């Protein structure tokens, strides 16, 4: 295992490499305001981050990643285009897997570019592939934006589409909602009885919790509205299922997705962006004919990405976490920019894991 000193030296080399590519080196505080992260991710973040309390500053979190503070910094006073690099510790709770490190060094490269987003995607991916050259890793890619576009164009209510979009990063919940909205899952008898009652609140017991009567009434009204919404059609459902099953090299994946677009035409603009990205990757020297693309990739671990996503994995060490990950997060800049936004893409590497792989390289 590499020592901490060796890991920091590797991190410094990577940051220098990114600086040579045009990035400005930046620092962010280790303690981050918890409120911002809770607003972005909800209470789920508490299960993955270390939270502490400060009498003056309120709840704080040990930095779970660099992207959020870098976006905040850029949206406050960044130029267009802009490139940043950084290196330092991040902290993640690992109760589900105690063998994984809960503190490790991360190095990143972020690009904010309003004019050439497809080229920026390719630039970030190619630059990270370059620094990983020589290590036994494989790359996986995807595009969350294609599934988002498919959901946004479904012939169903805005409420249902919002629920599906919210759970894109929770595949089991997304699947359960999809089955329910398609009428494949029977409605629970308790809900049927509740909605059939002329005055549902008259038969309820004492109020428990913080919800007021008006909130409960709004929820019942929403359930009634949902019950009256026609199911998602079988043709749309089958097309979504086909989309989610696509796993091929990039050119063949695009070809399959173009076929899906016959039934889901709303994904066509996202596929046009994928096609432009394939071309840009080729121009950056990436062999796209061997690059894996999976339509479902990134749905369990990349919650703020909304477009291109990628990861690099140790070919012979499936027990290791990703060596590098990244993707596009345009919506995050809008959330943190007080109405302003700018296309943005970035990636992070773990120098400690890179050294670990180098030690066992043939």
UniProtKB/TrEMBL annotation:
SUPFAM superfamilies (UniProt xref): Class II aaRS and biotin synthetases
Keywords assigned by UniProt, alphabetized: Glycosyltransferase, Transferase
Signal sequence range: none
Keyword Calcium part of the UniProt annotation: no
Gene Ontology MF: a single term: glycosyltransferase activity
InterPro entries the UniProt entry points to: aa-tRNA-synth_II, aa-tRNA-synth_II/BPL/LPL, HisRS-like_core, HisRS/HisZ
Top-level taxon of origin: Bacteria
Start and end residues of each Aminoacyl-transfer RNA synthetases class-II family profile domain: 14-351
Pfam families cross-referenced by the UniProt entry: tRNA-synt_His (PF13393)
Subunit (UniProt): Homodimer.
UniProt cross-references to NCBIfam families, sorted A to Z: PRK12295.1-5
Protein name: Histidine--tRNA ligase
Annotated source species: Lutimaribacter marinistellae
